[in-house]
Amino acid sequence: MNSKNRPIAVAPLFTDGMVLQRDADVKIWGSGQKGEELQIEIAGQSRLAMIDEQGNWEASFSCLPTGGPYRMSVTGYEKLVIEEVYVGDVWLLGGQSNMELPVERTLDLFQKEVSQATNPLIRQFSVPQIYDFTAPRKELAGGKWQAVTPQTVLEFSAVGYFFAQALYEKYRVPQGLILTAVGGTPIEAWLSEETLNRLGLADYGAVIDRCRERDYIQSTMQAENKAMHAWHKRLNAEDPGLNDTPNWFEPDFSDTEWPQIDVPGTWSKSDLSGFVGSVWLRQNFTVPPEMANEPALLHLGAIIDADQTYLNGKLIGRTEYKYPPRRYQVPAGILRPGENTLAVRVIVNGGTGGFVPEKKYALVAEKKEIPLDGPWKYKKGAPMAALPMQTFFQFKPTGVYNAMLAPLHNCTIKGILWYQGESNAGAPERYVQLFEALVSSWRHAWGEPELPFLFVQLPNFAAETWEFGSKFGWAEFRDAQQRGLSIPNTAMAVTIDLGEANDLHPQNKKGVGERLALLARRLIFGEDIVATGPVFSGLKRCGGALEVSFETGGTLVAAGEELVGFEVCGADRKFYPAEADVAEDRVIVRSCSVEVPCGVRYAWANNPEANLYNDSGLPAAPFRAEVE
Length: 628
Known about the structure:
Layout: E1 9-10, E2 19-21, E3 25-31, E4 37-42, E5 45-50, E6 56-62, E7 67-75, E8 79-95, H1 97-100, H2 107-114, E9 119-126, E10 145-148, H3 158-171, E11 175-181, H4 193-198, H5 202-212, H6 216-238, H7 240-243, E12 260-263, E13 265-266, E14 277-287, E15 296-300, E16 303-304, E17 306-311, E18 314-319, E19 327-330, E20 338-348, E21 354-355, E22 361-365, E23 368-371, E24 374-383, H8 399-405, E25 415-419, H9 428-446, E26 453-456, H10 473-482, E27 490-493, H11 509-523, E28 535-542, E29 545-551, E30 556-558, E31 566-569, E32 575-577, E33 579-583, E34 586-590, E35 599-602, E36 612-614, E37 623-626
Parallel strand pairs: 2-8, 8-11, 8-25, 9-11, 25-26, 26-27
Antiparallel strand pairs: 1-3, 3-6, 4-5, 4-7, 7-8, 9-10, 12-24, 13-21, 14-20, 14-24, 15-19, 15-22, 16-21, 17-18, 17-20, 22-23, 28-29, 29-34, 30-36, 31-32, 31-35, 33-34, 35-37
Helix pairs in contact: 3-11, 9-10
């Protein structure tokens, strides 16, 4: 084998536009023909590396100068050049969907802000979403770095982008984001098999072994995809809305005999409750002449589960699952003066469908807006049995760790941002153990026992309403997350006021990113700033009241006319709403229903009404405590 058969290469992480960590030892590695000597140069530094017997090479650079762009060259029998290399701070973004969620999903709040976003010094590398149950991989499957432009920013992690933006505005150094997050993944998917074995969690071992069986994953996916394809094929074949003449989405179809239903709203209290299959909804609305033939944006909130949306007989948008906001572009020429017809084919996979309340339902063109909430005509299409279940192998233990995290261990980073937990909210006690194991094992893998770890506490969300937990499930899980603060060099962003009761994926990721940036400025960069809201520090009984003490980081503030969110209990541990008043760095709570109070809790609900802040505008963390 000669050098031409094995050209020199760098690891997939090192592509044009990459960001390397400042003020640290940085490794560069790759592959090539064994025995070949390489010279690696960047920012005025030069290193020699010999390709070993396995065809691998590695070079280490110390404290590269902050800034850029630089050029990196790797020279042996041939020369490889990497352009636009920057040196700044590199952050690993881990977790599930709320970390992965792109800026594009937040445009209802931030479209104007990001429409002109341009910054070559904020860059993201998106790790390909794959899994591997055989062993930890040495290299990523691919990926590329992207700089912020009005187009690319839509693909950035929204939390990561707003975090990086806040730090860039403060320090003016390049910010590199490595996004390795997958929607729906539980924490055990991000742990190594070795770590799970060390914890003695034998129930995971059988799952891993099963996923390693020859052809098991492929045969399972083929069977499930076949069943799913057959389900949709039958649905389409039996749906009169697609097969009648005219089709039910055509403007000249008559829906005069169809009953009405209010949009938005779930269908749990209608004759559509429990109906699985297709449901057609239609609404006629009037367009003024000045809006006709112009482009527009159709807002249809969120729909359970999938939809195909037609305007004047033209398909203008479709979404295959229930979480994304429906924001459909209406091309010029579709709207016409006078009456227009909107038709939505909703596909319910199982359970009960509907249009999520408290979302925007309107047609918007420039400054004109036509509301679309209210009564719609509806009719059932094709009834079906529930959509066949699908196995999500990326959710299984160790799979994404092996393929998406292990290859990054040699990459020097400034810190880790972690937003995950929704998929583990049903088992808070186990999560305490798993989270501690994740932090310690990741730090060990990076060879950094104090590697900074910033994490997001779950926001407010009506979990029980949307079948994501019991009445207090998320409150108990937030408490489990808060116990993670006992791990040194960690910090937690409280987001109890940034969620949406009706959305597992709230759009205000700017608030999350900015709070994480405050934590980084204090914990990592050592700034003497207020980075957290009031934190519970003590409790004592004063007659018929309780005195709750806080580490405030400033002055306690009630965001509203009166302080809400506190409850007290007696010896029977039955809680009652409490009156609460701020007294310097304390809150005095009492209830006429509890003569001798023994305990207190604050913001102790999935979607609580709670308004205790400090004067820096940061919310108090939920807590519960008893008098000692």
